[in-house]
Amino acid sequence: MKKPSIFTTIYPEKFIDAFKGKKQANIQNLLGSIAILEKSQTSDMSKFALSYNKTKGYASRLRYNDYFPLQNNYNKLLSGKSFQTHGGKKVLDPITQEPKKNPDPVKLGYVIIIDRPYSTKGIPTPQYFLTLKGFFLITGYNLNSDELKSMINNASKISLFFCFIKKVMDDYSISFVREIFIKPIQKVLLRSDIFQGGNMNFYFGNFADAISEALSKKMKAINKKRKEDVNKKPDSYFSEKITKEYMQLHPTRPFSDLVRIKKRDELQDTANIVYQFLLTGIESLMDNVFYSDKPKEDWYDSLVDHFYPKEESKVLFLKFGYDSENILMNKVMQSLSQTYAYFDYGILPYKENKLPRSKAWKRHQKFKRKGSRTKLRNEIDLSNL
């Protein structure tokens, strides 16, 4: 009988390479615990998994003997020493006759060791954290708002993409982030083979398209509701807004036509559309979108400076960040800016957000020799992506 997991996911059974086998619940809980707890040791994970209550939160009141067996299990899983068993005996591979191991989340690319602090006994103890692939996997968990906030906060420490999502979440709300980012990403994950050995980079464009589609639906729904509200207003509402000056602009028009024109003007009031988008979080999103058809050579470095304004905030990102996120961020920023700019055939005023030159570029300008050209760390031609 399978042990139930404290987390549920959107994924079908055996859809994830790390979840295959009888230890599925343990690995599922382990990865979920790391995502919510931040960097953690196996003792932290086991306490969390045993005492976590979705309604009351995490309350650790466990004796050592309560969580030690699970901690030992987690240690074996993360070190690749967990063997498949049946009836208390190790399961052998039919070809090699070697004992079969349970999936190793470290070797599969979901978990990394970010530190080895010394314990009270002077023993270096690994602290674990999720990779970008690991956090994408957790995006497919059915997390409540508090869990999702914790996951995004932790993911933002090693991922510029999740740092962008965190900024939108902090500026507006977690429900908006779930609608525009999380649910669209989940749809892509269900159609992908990322967690079955596929290349994550291949799906960056799909993520960008799904997110921009969600934004487009949101914008259209807001504008549709706005039009319905305007059309419900009685003629008396518009007739009261017709001034003498307005009548002089249309001297040959009957008053009934002026009422109709006034209603049309309100339906086409772009300032009001922008205001409605402001109320619903879309303007907060667009304030953090930076895209140009002709990006500067240090565009990605400037983006890093924007989302990690303090040096101490990007320590983990610089050490464990994903190199290809520049491509992901370019695709996402491009899709979002174009979705906004072309809304209802370009009726909205769109102003491109400008990024200042990066700290790296300024350092290079200061120290480079006359006539020489020093290549920036993240310099890449993004024009054709």
Structural notes for this entry:
With 385 residues, the protein is mostly helical. The protein has 2 domains: 1-144; 207-367, no CATH class. 51% of the residues lie in helices and 4% in strands. It is built from 17 helices and 6 strands. The protein has helices at residues 24-37, 42-51, 64-79, 132-139, 145-155, 160-171, 174-191, 204-232, 235-239, 244-249, 255-267, 270-279, 282-286, 299-307, 315-320, 325-341, 359-367; strands spanning 52-53, 57-58, 85-86, 89-90, 111-115, 127-130. The strands form 3 sheets. Strands 1-2 form a two-stranded antiparallel sheet. α2 packs across α3.
Distance between the terminal alpha carbons, to the nearest Å? 49 Å
What is the number of E strands?
6
Q: What shape does the CA trace take?
A: elongated
* Total count of helical runs of at least 4 residues: 17
Question: Which helices and strands occur, and which strands form pairs?
Answer:
Blueprint: H1 24-37, H2 42-51, E1 52-53, E2 57-58, H3 64-79, E3 85-86, E4 89-90, E5 111-115, E6 127-130, H4 132-139, H5 145-155, H6 160-171, H7 174-191, H8 204-232, H9 235-239, H10 244-249, H11 255-267, H12 270-279, H13 282-286, H14 299-307, H15 315-320, H16 325-341, H17 359-367
Antiparallel strand pairs: 1-2, 3-4, 5-6
Helix pairs in contact: 1-2, 2-3, 4-5, 5-6, 6-7, 7-8, 8-16
